[in-house]
Design goal:
The chain is an alpha+beta fold and 733 residues long. The chain contains 27 helices and 26 strands.
């Protein structure tokens, strides 16, 4: 084939120098993923920053645990451990730490537990609200001047309503606090529970001694507003639904297996490679596989963002999660359940959402220092007000409880995970899959974007542009030679000739010469199709392959590569964001210059070898640039790994996908610009959340310490701070 033929085409017969480096690149990519067990467990009791440090530090002390990362937004912990560690061995340890735990399959995540928690909170809110309204009616009589026996009667009736209500509706707080106490720690639900118990206890004491004031109404109202705050926090987390849960929604639990012509419904987990499954119209494909019978169209929009359906027929590869639109298909299973591509995607997202970055570490350190300070402030406030009021225990306890509640660092614990989860969900819906937890942070720092050409900005499917310039006899000869080659240019030429009705010439002794082209004999005389110098032609400055005929004359077949959808848009959007854009390719100068002119890219490099691409990224980095590399080939792998951040299409080779931080699921490349924009927004939102948390505590803590906040108002303020942080994360667009 021609030297001008694109060296980035991924076939072993190409003259591309990258092919020499391909085995090493594959090995490097495989070495980058060490063997380990990834376990995910649900910890529904985790809800504050103290929970993060307790769970992570408790697990990381165990032998065989490499790391433990809590996602507070989803209440899950991701554990990376030695292969022999199992979830069953970790659950008892988490129970000793005071946390109920359940194993989750990252590929079969479900929102059932989330829905159950929401319904339970609503039920408790309803009970607390109903009781609160009745107690308030009784309190009106007391406030209106009821005295002596009448006042005591109303207090006792209020107590009979309030005490069962607090005991029932406050269970989420009491259970969490008790588990923490058994584990020898004071979580953030402990001060809340203490405030509820103290308010109820003081009210019983006052009522028993015919006191003028009882606080049954405050205890129930405190319970009600704390539950409302927790439910609103629960709902904002659900709105920021993770990309892993989006993928989980595409999972099909059952499939129709064909066995000896009979249909049987089985669990997807029971399917094995080689089984045949029937996918009816309107159904979701349950497995990865290959179509053996039937034709239809597939909707892949939820997986890749592609709006238009794609054709599916025999030998078509299909993936779990795609929707079969029009006709029945029989699919031979290649992977199912946890081995499917959908499951692996969900696991990648879950890993990225739970990973640590610079901001996560800052939040963790602040929360660990903040939690003991909360209790110290509360006990100090109690001691001071006992001294200042001459021993008024009730007043001192109220201030101490208000301080405990109002200083809960829940907002600080949500500052980072709420944003990361919201951002990953936004990007997934735009067709981008985040593999690295620190990718958003690094994307936000990018100031230069380097694009590969073939397969990235173009589709990597060259099409002949000058068939009409050649006589029919020349086309007959070219079609015969091209049909015997596996090179992409030759295949494209053969396909175009067939579409034009060209009949291949009767050649003999057809043979492919690796790295040069294909040759044969016509009436005993040798003819060739391939490199310019091999066939004796003068090379052109465009992508082309050359035909050397029996009479010694030559012909050139030129090609143009179609732009990838969104290529022009992404370049324009990146430039509009003020970022530098560079095009680097191994293709011929003419082809690269033409594409650069079409897209408005002034800085471009042609004829780049794999090491040249990596060297250019290294040069830009050394000059202080933060580079985003977007590429798809084996010859891009080194550059992808060396860049500050990297993106590769899902159509890229495995080595490129492994080396990249983000995978583009669809054909449209425009979402790359969205990723850069959302990454910068995410960084701003995280900083804003830190600011909100700091400002809240600077204002709220002094108010509580000087006695200007009751436990009820403290509960409202604490809930509002957490909700504000979560809502701020949802402002990502």
């Amino acid at each position: 084939m021609s030297v001008a033929a694109d060296p980035e085409t991924h076939v072993s017969i190409s003259a591309c120098p990258a092919c020499v480096a391909a085995p090493s690149a594959e090995r490097i990519a495989q070495m980058a993923a060490p063997r380990e067990a990834r376990l995910m467990l649900s910890i529904p009791g985790a809800h504050c920053a103290a929970c993060i440090s307790t769970v992570e530090q408790g697990l990381e002390r165990l032998p065989g645990i490499r790391s433990a990362r809590v996602n507070l937004t989803l209440r899950r912990v991701l554990v990376e451990a030695e292969p022999e560690v199992t979830a069953a061995s970790l659950i008892p340890h988490l129970d000793r730490l005071g946390y109920e735990a359940h194993e989750l399959d990252p590929g079969v995540l479900s929102v059932t537990e989330t829905d159950r928690q929401g319904r339970e909170l609503l039920m408790r809110i309803g009970v607390a609200g109903f009781s609160m309204m009745n107690i308030m009616l009784l309190s009106v009589a007391v406030w209106s001047g009821a005295t002596d026996a009448t006042r005591d009667l109303f207090h006792w009736i209020s107590g009979m309503i309030a005490l069962p209500t607090v005991a029932f509706a406050g269970q989420p707080f009491f259970k969490s606090a008790w588990r923490g106490l058994k584990a020898g720690r004071l979580g953030m639900d402990f001060p809340i529970s203490l405030a509820l118990v103290l308010a109820s206890g003081i009210s019983i004491y006052e009522t028993w001694h015919s006191g003028r004031h009882a606080y049954f109404d405050s205890a129930v109202m405190l319970t009600f507003f704390l539950l409302v705050g927790r439910y609103l926090d629960h709902r904002t987390r659900a709105v920021a639904r993770s990309a892993a849960q989006e993928l989980a929604a595409l999972e099909v639990p059952r499939a129709i297996r064909l066995l000896d012509g009979a249909e049987e419904t089985v669990m997807v987990a029971d399917l094995r490679p080689g089984d045949l499954v029937l996918v009816r119209p309107g159904g979701r494909v349950p497995v990865d596989g290959v179509v053996t019978e039937g034709t239809s169209e597939l909707d892949r929009s939820l997986l890749t963002g592609e709006v238009l359906p794609v054709f599916a027929g025999p030998d078509r590869v299909v993936s779990a999660g795609e929707v079969n639109l029009t006709g029945p298909l029989v699919v031979r299973v290649t992977a199912a359940g946890r081995d499917s591509s959908l499951s692996r995607m969900a696991e990648l997202v879950a890993v990225a959402e739970s990973a640590r970055n610079r901001y996560t570490s800052i939040a963790d350190r602040a929360a660990r220092a903040y939690s003991p300070l909360v209790h110290l402030l509360s006990f100090s406030a109690f001691g001071y007000w006992m001294w200042a009021t001459g021993g008024d225990v009730r007043y001192a306890i109220n201030i101490s409880a208000a301080t405990l509640i109002i200083t809960c660092p829940c907002a600080l614990g949500l500052a980072v995970p709420a944003v990361v989860t919201a951002a990953s969900g936004r990007l997934f819906r735009k067709g981008l899959l985040i593999k690295s937890g620190s990718a958003l942070e690094r994307l936000a720092e990018v100031d230069t974007v380097v694009f590969d050409k073939t397969g990235t900005l173009t589709m990597g499917a060259p099409e002949p542009t000058n068939l009409g310039d050649h006589p029919r006899a020349v086309l007959d000869l070219a079609a015969a030679l091209a049909g015997a080659s596996g090179h992409p240019l030759a295949q494209s030429l053969a396909q175009a000739c067939r579409a034009a009705g060209v009949v291949p010439a009767p050649l003999t002794d057809l043979a492919e010469v690796p790295g040069y082209g294909v040759e044969g004999r016509l009436h005993g005389r040798r003819v060739r199709l391939g490199r310019a110098e091999w066939v004796g032609a003068a090379p052109l400055e465009v992508t082309a392959t050359y035909l050397g005929m029996a009479d010694g004359t030559t012909r050139a077949f030129t090609f143009a590569d179609a732009l990838r959808p969104g290529a022009a848009e992404v370049v324009a959007a990146v430039k509009a964001q003020g970022l530098a854009v560079k095009l680097i390719s191994g293709d011929a100068p003419g082809a690269v210059a033409d594409l650069a002119a079409r897209l408005g890219i002034a800085d471009w490099t042609a004829g780049a070898l794999p090491e040249g691409k990596a060297a250019e990224v290294a040069r830009l980095t050394a000059a202080g640039r933060r580079v985003l590399m977007v590429g798809d080939g084996l010859n891009d792998t080194a550059a992808l790994a060396a860049a500050h951040a990297s993106v590769s299409p899902a159509s890229a080779l495995d080595a490129a996908r492994v080396a990249s931080d983000i995978v583009l699921l669809g054909r449209d490349i425009a979402p790359v610009a969205d990723a850069l924009r959302i990454a910068r927004q995410s960084t701003r939102r995280i900083r804003e959340n830190f600011g909100i948390s700091a400002a809240y505590n600077l204002v709220a803590v002094p108010i509580a310490l000087v006695g200007l906040a009751t436990p009820l108002w403290a509960a409202l303020a604490m809930s509002l701070s957490s909700i504000t942080v979560a809502l701020n994360a949802l402002r990502l667009k």
